[in-house]
Design a protein that fits this description.
The protein contains 15 helices and 16 strands. By secondary structure, it is of the alpha/beta class. The chain has 3 domains: about 160 residues, NAD(P)-binding Rossmann-like Domain (Rossmann fold, 3-Layer(aba) Sandwich), CATH 3.40.50; about 150 residues, Dihydrodipicolinate Reductase, domain 2, CATH 3.30.360; about 90 residues, Alpha-Beta Plaits, CATH 3.30.70.260. Strands 7, 8, 9, 10, 11, 12, 13, 14, 15 and 16 form a 10-stranded mixed beta sheet that branches. The longest helix has 17 residues. The radius of gyration is 24 Å and the shape is elongated.
């Protein structure tokens, strides 16, 4: 059987999983690739470091040049996280004539245009299925299976840590601090989980999907973003009473005025697929103009789900499928975006508003007046029994009809200036 020599750069949690699949299950890769993927080199920073991966003698090295200068190595899984030295290493590998497979969403979100343009100049390819939603084959489906469609919308749960935390807040009535502590105990959250819970991880992944689905050239940090780290479990309870669950949603909508993008906690109606995504799972709902709605659900992170996606990319690269797709995607190919980002303030939607107000006459009238002045119609109002220490302060929940993001934002700013309103206002979008 034919043999394609491959290498791994970076032997962390995911890299160890990739090595395991290549070494222990070569029969699978041979069956799907029609050739053996032969692991020739594994590059690490510290050879002496203890690792769970059991490697044959002579594979491990701290010399990247062994890979770059080996003409027999055709495909390299570049599995170093962060921006640098990952960016420099990827450029060196491309210039050394290697095709790349990566799971580094932060690098692609920040330097994708540069890396993809350079790969094309050198006649090389970059495969990145594992960079978004781990083991869910969303990249392949958008770039290949749905290529006959104009994607009109994407909405997804793209971070397993955040979804685990909101699941525990919802089901166990835990405050955020206790929910994140449980995630850390179970290994679903890092010691410092900031990039998961502040929404930046989901935003980087959404930027990649926006490039794929819409041909947009957007810097991930230009996308409006809010995480789950400021959520109050009281709002989880109120939402559930109203028939919703709160989820961190990455949202993209193709409109005649441009591409609307946002990452933020949203109310999702109970019974709809995204509302039922629990624990550390990910899910993406895609709408195509020809196929209609399609839904993808599965493990979005973890050693073996991510390793599964990486090895699948290595197989596709070895047999030439990645090169064909890479040339036809037109990703960042000419520097001209096919769609611009729309003004976030013009995004329409319904809102959940919760104000903590003094229990006195005329308060609802003042709130309604300001909402009306900002062209916001009220769908319903609920006044809940106070769970605050001060019995004179009560939470009022207002569900609005469709309005613009900028109208809702302006109205909340004005309402918070009222003397009858105390700190702790919440404003959340409702996913339609």
């Amino acid at each position: 059987m034919k043999k394609t020599e491959v290498a791994i750069v970076g032997l962390g949690t995911v890299g160890s999983g990739v090595a395991r699949l290549l070494l222990d299950h070569g029969d699978r890769t041979a069956r799907h690739a029609g050739r053996t993927l032969w692991l020739s080199h594994v590059v690490v920073r510290d050879i002496a470091k203890s690792r769970d991966a059991q490697l044959p003698e002579g594979l491990l090295t701290d010399d990247l040049n062994r890979v770059i200068k080996d003409p027999n190595v055709k495909v390299v899984a570049q599995l170093i996280g962060g921006i640098e030295p990952a960016r420099s290493i990827m450029l060196q590998l491309l210039e050394g004539g290697k095709d790349i497979v990566t799971a580094n969403k932060a690098l692609l979100a920040e330097h994708g245009p540069e890396l993809f343009d350079r790969a094309r100049q050198l006649g090389r390819s970059i495969a990145f299925e594992a960079s978004v939603a781990g083991g869910i084959p969303i990249i392949t489906n958008i770039s290949q299976c749905l290529s006959a469609n104009q994607v009109t919308s994407l909405r997804g749960i793209l971070n397993g840590t955040s979804n685990f935390v909101v699941t525990r807040m919802d089901q166990d009535n835990l405050p955020y601090e206790k929910a994140i502590a449980r995630a850390q105990q179970l290994g679903f959250a890092e010691t410092d989980p900031i990039h998961d819970v502040d929404g930046s991880d989901s935003t980087q992944k959404l930027a990649i999907l926006a490039h794929l689905g819409f041909g947009a050239r957007i810097r991930w940090n230009d996308i409006p973003c809010r995480g789950i780290d400021t959520l109050d479990k009281a709002d989880m309870n109120y939402a559930r009473q109203l028939g919703y669950r709160i989820k961190l949603i990455a949202f993209a909508l193709y409109t005649e005025n441009g591409l609307q993008l946002i990452v933020t906690p949203m109310l999702v109606e109970i019974g709809k697929p995204l509302a039922e995504v629990r624990e550390n799972f990910n899910a993406i709902s895609v709408m195509g103009d020809a196929v209609g709605p399609v839904f993808f659900h599965g493990q979005g992170a973890g050693r073996m789900p991510t390793a599964s996606a990486i090895v699948a990319d290595m197989i596709d690269t070895a047999v030439g499928r990645t090169a064909l797709t890479f040339e036809t995607l037109e990703l960042w190919s000419d520097g001209v975006p096919r769609v611009e980002m729309a003004d976030p303030g013009d995004l329409s939607g319904q809102f959940y508003l919760r104000f903590n107000v003094r229990d006195e006459p005329g308060v609802l009238g003042q709130l309604a007046g300001i909402l009306g002045e900002n062209e916001i119609s009220i769908a319903s109002v609920f006044q809940h029994t106070s769970d605050m220490q001060n019995d004179d302060i009560v939470p009022v929940v207002i569900m609005t009809r469709a309005t613009l993001e900028k109208n809702a934002s302006n109205a909340v700013i004005e309402i918070e200036k009222l003397s009858c309103v105390v700190a702790g206002t919440e404003r959340l979008r409702i996913l339609e």
